[in-house]
Amino acid sequence: MNVGVNGYEAVVPRFGYDRKSGLPIRVGSAEFAFRLLNEFAKDKSNSFITYLPKEPTSDMPKETQNFKYSVFKSKKLWTMIGLSQKLLSDKKNLDVFFSPTHYLPLTTPVPSAVSILDVSYLKYPQLFNKRDLYQLRFWGGWSVKKAKKILTISNSSKDGIIEAYGVSPEKVTVVYPGISPKEEIKNMEELTKKYNIKGKYILFVGTLQPRKNIERLIEAFSKIFDKDLTLIIIGKKGWMFEEILDAPKRFGVSEKVKFLDSVMDDELPGFYKNAEFFILPSLYEGFGLPVLEAMQYGCPVITSSVSSLPEAGGDAVLYVDPEDTFDIKSKMEKLLKDQKLREELIKKGYQQVKKFSWDKTAKDTIKVLESIAR
User: Fold this and answer.
1) Residue 199 domain-assigned?
2) Cβ atoms of 80 and 62 closer than 8 Å
């Protein structure tokens, strides 16, 4: 099977490049695309052409006999128009086309599949800026209807796609994302000195945007009376983040909340390992990979009981109502005090992460592509 892949988001980062490594900062669909490409490069049974608007970055897989890059520029919209033209010229060499990043080109001369990670833009349109919302609604909706198959990352997202777009359940396949290999934990003494961290801390990791419910988390944290406890929020500024940054001042905890937007990927394991617990009180998630990342490093987890998060967390996390500040505060206090519960969640977390791997994600994706290849 000859597969064409849209690799755009793997090399064009929405949040720019890391200042130290120079590599793209990948979150969400960009990370999803990057991890799948790495697995596709290992496959010996099929051939892959990955289309890019610029040369692959140094951390992307090297070309092999079965894995090639096609790099080209387009004066007009790269995916919609430029990639359409490129696929038309390459159609004799392709059996199927796959876009792991929400959008299909205007024209796909071979059967196509698209990954729609979630439909949060339909459930919470007020939490998105107008440009992104328009693109997700109309281009994303058009891609859903055009694709032969839709891949998504949770049953919650599958139900949302079926409800929103009226497609048949048979058209949508759930392919769970993987968890990246465990990395070496850096010296925490160096990290605490570098980022000026003192004492115990609670950890949040994610893009600063309204859907992550960070304002309510800060409000709940402000009600916990522990002068030695800090809330560390690691993540890049997404959209509508101004009120999030202002929240510590509004709730009287400016000195106890620390925003870090320059943490390196290889530093994150240290933050997870040494946190009192990790918390992700999102209003909606397509899946919630940071939940599994925290478990991987023996960090207890609190997360929301909504959308796909119970699929990621299983019985290994403490769940909260994300719209109930008192519940968030109470569960945080419980996990701070109950050592037996902490140990139980850590133990269950190690078992939960074993269920997810990028190797399995790629193999399940290839099965879907084989089912529609001409």
Assistant:
1) yes
2) no
Residues 16 and 157 in one domain: yes
The amino acid at 1: M
Q: What percent of the chain has pLDDT over 70?
A: 100
Q: Is 316's pLDDT higher than 80?
A: yes
Which structural domain range is residue 48 located in? 2-178+357-372
* Strand ranges for the chain from DSSP E: 2-6, 47-52, 67-71, 96-99, 112-115, 149-152, 172-174, 200-205, 229-234, 257-260, 278-280, 301-304, 318-320
Length of the chain: 374
Q: Which residue has the higher pLDDT, 131 or 156?
A: 156
- pLDDT band for position 124 (cuts 50, 70, 90): confident
Pair (209, 158) in one structural domain: no
At 358, is the pLDDT very low, low, confident or very high (cuts 50, 70, 90)?
A: very high
Which runs of E-coded beta strand occur in 261-362? 278-280, 301-304, 318-320
DSSP state of 354: T
Q: Which whole number is the average pLDDT over 94-107?
A: 94
Please list, in sequence order, all residues whose beta carbon lies within 8 angstroms of the beta carbon of residue 8, skipping any fewer than 6 positions away. Answer: 33, 51, 52, 53, 78, 79, 83, 101
Task: Answer yes or no: is 167 within a domain.
Answer: yes
Domain of residue 34, CATH code: 3.40.50.2000
| Secondary structure element (H or E) that encloses residue 273, with its range | helix 268-274
